[in-house]
Amino acid sequence: MTIESSHQMQSKYSLIKTSDLIAKSQQECDVDERANWIRALGERTEPKVIKLLWDLRNNMENEHPFVQYEIKLSLHKVTNISSVGIDMFLENLSVFPNKKKTSQAPKILIDSNILEEFLLRNKTTMNQDVTKVVEWVLSEKINPYIGKNGVENLWLRVKDLRGQEYANRLIIEIISQFEVCEIDLKNIDLEKYPTVNIPTVIQVECAKKYNLDGIITLRDRDFVSSGWPYVYSPALFLEYVESEDSDLSPEFFKEKLAQKSIDRRRETLSINWEEEPLKKNLSFEDKLLLFQGWSIKKFEVLCTKKDLTSAMIILQDQYGKEYYTDSGFKKGSINALFTAFDKALSHIVEIKHELKAIYVANLTPGKEGAVTAMVFVRSGEEEVIKIYSHENIIKAYLFAYVKAIIAVYAPNEDSQDIYEEKELISLYKIGMRDFRKLNFSKVDLSDNEANLSESILIGCDFSKANLSGANLTKTDLTRANLSKANLSKANLSNANLTGVELDENNQTLFEGTILTNTIMPEIKIAVSGKSRIDKVVQLLEQIDIQKSECQLLAVHSMTTPTWWHSDLGMYFWEVSKKILQKGILIKRVFILPESPTQIHLQVLREQAEAGVEVRYICCTNAKNVDNHDLHNTNVMIYENSLVERNSFTTRMLINEEEENGYISYQEIDLKTDKELFYSIWKKSSIWKQVEFPNCPGKIIPHEFLNK
After folding, report:
1. Confidence band (pLDDT; 50, 70, 90) for 367?
2. Hey, what long-range contacts does 678-682 have (CB within 8 A, 24 or more apart)?
């Protein structure tokens, strides 16, 4: 065939649809024409073309040698085109259907490292086991699966070592033999796997999603702490399937091989334990009550300085007749012990809880110190957090876990024990401290270093507790019960008191307590006389914001002008000047009598010169402000727009001691008093002063000159 005729032929076939081209190549019987159609397929890169060429390549024994040559040449062309790669294959898996599954064979995920060893290594001891596993896959005695990420990694590795054509041919073979598993990483709760690497997590989640019977991998140690027991090395898998008593039916394969895996690891553990100079065999016999008459008779933890750990636990009924003994093999003693406990517990109740987190909450110093362990469990919508202090960290964790289990499965038997002060006092802190929903009623921390800063205390019961002087900075006390709690001198700076439960008077919340930028509940307390001034000044002195977003709005009746020159008034004025120095705006309206004296006016002048925005109104005019009589009003509003719910208002600020007043953080009071202030502010006059020419030193507002 000349070059010209070859170009003419290519032009002829290029106009034909791929589907027609495939049909012609399958129907044509003439050798030359059939070869031409197949040669034309080599110019197309659609997945269905590659699939057809692959099928032809696998069934060439009945083809003419000339046609065989064209099949090989076309397949060589399409698998070498740069656009044909792993992405194209994975996006078109349906075009390359894998072999039908054998219903009675176990479903096994083959780690891509098995195939890497088989394809890229020379024959070694490891490669011999791997080769046998691959033979089992090809023998169709198991239903093989492989992860999508594993296919991608394998293609890249083979492409780098053997070239693109070899990698593409390999992937075609794999996806026709294996079912490819994939899972979205966004759908995985990685908090369940705190000590497991991401590739391992993906494989475990794929196995769960596709209901697989096991995983065969060269890195089975990586799966120890995953909580999924059906993971096997090639050697262990082959030892089982090649034994005389092997059973590959799905109902037996999974459990039998899993038990063999556990026994093998326990055997390895025992050997390591005997070899280790620093070995630990921790055996405990605490008769810890569970519920429904069950208790823990004994538990044991066997561990080495390596990461191998075995745990055993025995549960017995109240009559000593029934026993449940279970074990767990995990990476880490606590994980192993909790696994054994859950397996034993499953004989008593249907497991419905999920362990979300465990950590050390407090650690006290010294040889005889104790550790406080925290356990966080979720069951449906219910969250349970329990803590327990013990000198042995394993007991601390287990007993906290048991308390959480009781709260989930037998809430009527949950004793709601009142924790001692040591549960709260932390001289040395490790990690976050989450004490939410715990019962600390009646605790007395007044003589201790009660440093609870930044703790999560949501929903805790501190009723009747003595928290005097406690460090509660940045704590979250949302919905906590503080009724009749002593909070005097406690530091609640930047704390969150949203929705806390308080008693009727709430007095100790203002007895020397530091409430700087604290998110306050909607409370209102009745106060009068000097104690009211002390509490208000206490709140004002704690203002640490030096921005204009905060301001003081005040209305003062000047019936007793001498108050501002009393010890209490001068004290209040000194605090006001400190607030001004911080750049915080103060707006103040004075209600003056009809004939103000120089003492009245001196107060206005002094405050105006200090930076207060001063206005005044005659008491006669104040008797009708928007149809309200405000001539005897005393109110002050602190508005903090930078910190949510840190604004307050107080009534009857400067008045006789027997008169009643309040300090309120309630939104309705803040709204009402702000409206009152701005109503009288609009009716008031800006402070200006003039001096009588014939009476030097005497000043009077211009409004009063004609009186």
Report:
1. very low
2. 679/625, 679/626, 679/628, 679/630, 680/555, 680/589, 680/617, 680/622, 680/625, 680/630, 680/633, 681/553, 681/587, 681/589, 681/615
